[in-house]
Amino acid sequence: MSVWLRYATSILLSVVLIADVLPQAGRSVAEAAAADVPNGGFETVQSAGGYWQGSQPAFWTHWVPVGSPVLAVDSAVYYEGSRSLRISAAASARADVLQTVEVAPGETYLLSGWIKTEALQSGLSNGGAFIRTQYLNSANVKISDGPASAPIKGTTGWTEQTLQLVIPANVTRVKIELFYESATGTAWFDAVSISGGGSQPPVDPSLFSAVREKRLLQLTGNAYYNPADADMNAAVAAMASRVSNSGGSGHWDRMNKQSVRSYLWSDLSSKTESSHVTGAYGRLKDMALAYATAGSPLYGNQALLQDLLAALDWMYANRYKETVSPYKNWWDWEIGSPQHLNDIAVLLYDNLSSVQLGNFNRAIDRFVPDPARRTVQPSLVETGANLADKVFVVALRGATGQSASKLAQAKNALSPVFRFVTQGDGFYRDGSFVQHGYIAYTGSYGTVLLDRLGDLFDLLHQSPWMPDDPEAGNVYRWIEDSFEPLIYKGAMMDMVRGRAISRELSTDHTTARGAIRSMLRLAHSAPAAEGDRIKSVLKSWLQQDTSFDNYYVGLSVYDIDKLKRLLSDSAVLPEQEASRNKVFASMDRVVHARPGFAVGISMSSSRIASYEYGNGENKKPWHTGNGVTYLYNNDLTQFSDGYWATADMLRLPGITTDHATAPLTDWKYYFSSKPWAGGATLDGLYGSAGMELDMENSSLTGKKSWFFFDNEIVAIGTGITGGDGRTVETIVDNRKVQSGGQALTVNGTVQPVQPGWNTVWSDVTWAHLSGDGKGDIGYYFPRAATLQGKRELRTGSWSEVNSGGSTAPVTREYTSVAFPHGTNPNMGHYSYVLLPNADTATTQSYSESPDITVLSNGTSVQSVREHTLGLTAINYWTSAVVDGIAVRGPASAVVKETGNELVIAVSDPTQRQSTISMELSRAGWTLDSSDPAITVQQVSPSIKLTVNVAGAKGRTFTVRFTK
User: Fold this and answer.
1) Is 445 a catalytic residue?
2) DSSP string spanning 645-695?
3) What was the pLDDT predicted at 202?
4) Which of 39, 245, 340, 882 has a 20 to 30 Å separation from 712 between CA atoms?
């Protein structure tokens, strides 16, 4: 501890200068004592004179025994940040810029720094630019020389120098010297750091090799390749065919192989479109895979290798180099291209020269010097999937460049990903995942993050660089709380996929398949019990998902092997279908599930935007956050198989709509002016949810509620007003159906299965949509209703919802049922009950003897009682009383009342209140248990309680009474 105290004391003496280089919290004492050389990036300066030109870097001193060198902080040339140290001389000179740092005796450290030179000449064999060290005791007396790097001369790009420091028992300090030895010309030094101090093992080259070999295995699956496995052979053949085929359309076939060339592929020739750089590296990666993958007809092909090496050199010289200024999309420079380039370096590692590896890594270091910050916008701190992607880039670059400091940088930079957030991007404790500040994105950016963490944990497992942050285990909690509730029978719910729903080749099932792959990789590095639980869940999804003609098409050999091993492992029993009700309050989503079905509700508010549009994606998004009700059952391809290319985006199931649209602007978000969106859940099984409708580009308003019991989802709405002269309707359902089947029955009358009809029915009390063996749906209407029904063929194209989609027409058939509210309704209303998997007889029987009663469908309170379960679900829009349950202020509640138990679950869906007060006209109950936030003032003659909801972010609080 004394080492740390001495170091901390020196820090405090100059606190103004070093605020940006204090050790990070949560690291060991030894690490903190020497994890960062103060001002190792020369970013902090102070006034100086003498040999210094302009400013002098804080914490550094100098020694000039010979000549008249110029010492300077250079803001024009740097490896990272915005400054470096420059030493130059016109006549031979010796100079040393140095500082002393504290270390712990007996520990091992890694000293790293970067050097660049220009016309640096020296007549001495040991002359040039290098880093050297001295070991000192606590009295600053030299004990011995430490290691030094080899001198660099001539003109070189940025080159990393690393020194392993094994600290002798009587040494407590290390003098770091940036040496300019008997030379002329210019040398720059930057990014000087120390890592280790007890947490890092000695740097054995085999450690880097192990990381590279694991990535090689992830990419090729060579150790698992089985020539008798048809799926593996198909995967390898498809990969090789992309590179070369009989039709001459492969990447290698079409590549420009001229010795003098201005492009590699004619369709990727732009010098201003950054995606052409990433695209070219993507094709080169495919070629490298074909060369390096066992079973490939191009495995070990020397002609392919030579063309690859020449193409890589061309890309470095002409497209992706440390001297290039980035253009267009930052992502291509900092994620897309370096990811591909790293993988190519792994695949071809034994065939690349040290010069080539150095070139490629310098380029990557130019664009990703610090994974935690956006290089083109250094003030922007990376989060979520982008941060994980860049960490992966730096980790692999560390493995190919044998840089422990880079791997350590990657490991340490990843820590913020594991933290729960309370606002903005990331995972929330309620299971929500938000990206771009305001969008529910578990099924897009969330899966990308999960994918990258799966790769990283799998890659670094049992290595010195495996993340060991105390909160790294949150990843396994995310699987359980954030992903599992949103995946039904191998489909990721579209309500958390954002713009990705408009992508032709990205479906709910392909998205979930990618997540399953990632979770399986994470399961192998998880604690045993957690890993077994994850595998059980994954196995159930794999067995349930029959939507693919062949589940393994499009997967790698590595993943095919992992998935098949899981399915054949008799020790892993598949998890049974879950019963759950979950409110994702931080992203305005709700899920209710029972064996055989799951329902998702997509809402929006003043906190969460209605939709995201950008890059020409999601061109019809207007109503996707307005209460869309996704019902998943055994019709596994309901929301895939051309759904988003053909669905009527102005009449989505569950919404109240006036068919309004609005001009779209990239990355412009529409927020409701209303904060009321969310719900409450009781015991994770039953729930209430609601949102106050506030339409974009429309005056339409209304209050919408959903109440979730067992196999009943009750939807009621009221206060439906406005519409600006447009016709308003509430869509009970609008479901994709099979041609010639899936008949709709209304009040016992079967409707035609041929498309083309549009009918209005009166006094409807029940309806039923046949699933033809894939899951029937019953509909009950508590008040005999006038409904409009339609069966239609709808033709669209993917290009209509995504600029990158196909223009080919797609046609699907739909059946819809809706409440017509007329033009400019005033206080319109509706009520209906969804009965998933109920057949015709069950639906009719339910309509004759329903389990629910609508207690209130007013603008102050909406409430439904479920008699069999003893549940009353209530949404209070303002202070109100219903069924003897009074609440002051907005709230959502579920009350369970049986013979000997009274349970109250309540939340603040506005997320703006400090307290919620409740009074129940109930007597004879005794307090059994409650959340600490609930204060029970009395139990007789009525129950009075107060819930502290300040900062609760929509969380549900529960109190129990008994008799």
Assistant:
1) yes
2) HHS-TTS-TT-EE--------TTPPP--S---EEEEEETTTEEEEEEEEE-
3) 55
4) 882
At 104, the pLDDT band (50, 70, 90 cuts) reads confident
Can you tell me whether residue 845 is helix, strand or coil? helix
Q: 931: how many CB neighbours lie within 10 A of its CB?
A: 16
Q: Is the peptide bond before 941 cis (omega within 30 degrees of 0)?
A: yes
Q: What percent of the chain has pLDDT over 90?
A: 84
**DSSP per-residue string spanning 461-513:** TTSTTS---TTTTHHHHHIIIIIGGGEETTEE-GGG-GGGGG-TT--HHHHHH
Residue type, 815: T
**How many whole angstroms from its chain centre is CA 51?**
50
Element (H, E) at 461: none
pLDDT at 45 > cutoff 90:
no
For residue 2, pLDDT beyond 70? no
Helix or strand or coil: residue 397? Answer: helix
Give the SS3 label for residue 545: coil
Please tell me the least confidently modeled range out of 400-409, 422-431, 539-548, 926-935. 400-409
CA 852 – CA 867 distance, rounded (Å): 6
Which tokens hold the place of 808?
């080919």
CA distance 713 to 705: 10
Dihedral sign from CA coordinates of 71, 75, 76, 80: positive
Rg for the chain, CA atoms, rounded: 32
Distance CA 393, CA 370 (A): 10
**Which helix (DSSP H) or strand (DSSP E) does residue 699 occupy?**
none
Query: Are the beta carbons of 597 and 586 closer than 8 angstroms?
Result: no
Mean per-residue pLDDT for 901-920? Answer: 98
Beta pairing class for 828-836 and 713-721 = antiparallel
Our CA dihedral for 6, 8, 9, 11, rounded to 10 degrees, sits at 130
Q: Are 865 and 853 in contact (CB under 8 A)?
A: yes
820 SS3 class = strand
- The pLDDT of residue 586: 98
User: Which neighbouring-strand residues pair with 720?
Assistant: 828
What distance in Å separates the CA atoms of residue 736 and residue 793, rounded to the nearest whole number? 10
Beta-carbon neighbour count of residue 567 at 10 Å? 14
**More confident: 790 or 171:** 790
User: How many whole angstroms separate alpha carbon 486 and alpha carbon 493?
Assistant: 6
Task: Work out the burial of residue 138: count CB atoms within 10 Å of its CB; fewer than 13 is exposed, 13-18 middle, 19 or more buried.
Answer: middle
Neighbours of 306 (CB within 10 A): 12
Which residues does 893 contact at the CB level (< 8 Å), separation at least 6?
A: 680, 688, 873, 874, 875, 876, 885, 887, 904, 905, 906, 907, 918
DSSP states of 723-744: -TTSEEEEEEEEEEE-TT---E
Q: Which of 65, 66, 42, 62 is nearest to 50 (CA)?
A: 62
Could you tell me which residues come within 8 angstroms of residue 562 by beta carbon, excluding any fewer than 6 positions away?
517, 520, 521
Region 458-472: mean pLDDT is 92
pTM of the shown model = 0.81
Q: How far is CA 453 from CA 47, 114, 396, 415, 447, in A?
A: 45, 29, 13, 12, 10
Could you tell me the two tokens for 878? 């303002």
Exactly one of 445, 552, 613, 814 is catalytic; which is it? 445
- For residue 391, give the nearest of 404, 403, 382 by alpha carbon: 382
DSSP element (H, E) containing 526:
none
- Give the 3-state secondary structure of residue 921: coil
> What angle, 0 to 180 degrees and rounded to 10, lies between the N-to-C axes of helices 302-318 and 354-367?
40
- The dihedral built from the CA positions of residue 417, 423, 425 and 426, taken in this order, carries a sign that is positive
Q: Of how many residues is the chain composed?
A: 963
Amino acid at residue number 84: S
For the chain, counts of helices (H) and of strands (E): 19, 46
CA dihedral 413, 417, 422, 426 (to 10 degrees): 130
Decide: 690 and 593 in contact? Cβ < 8 Å.
no
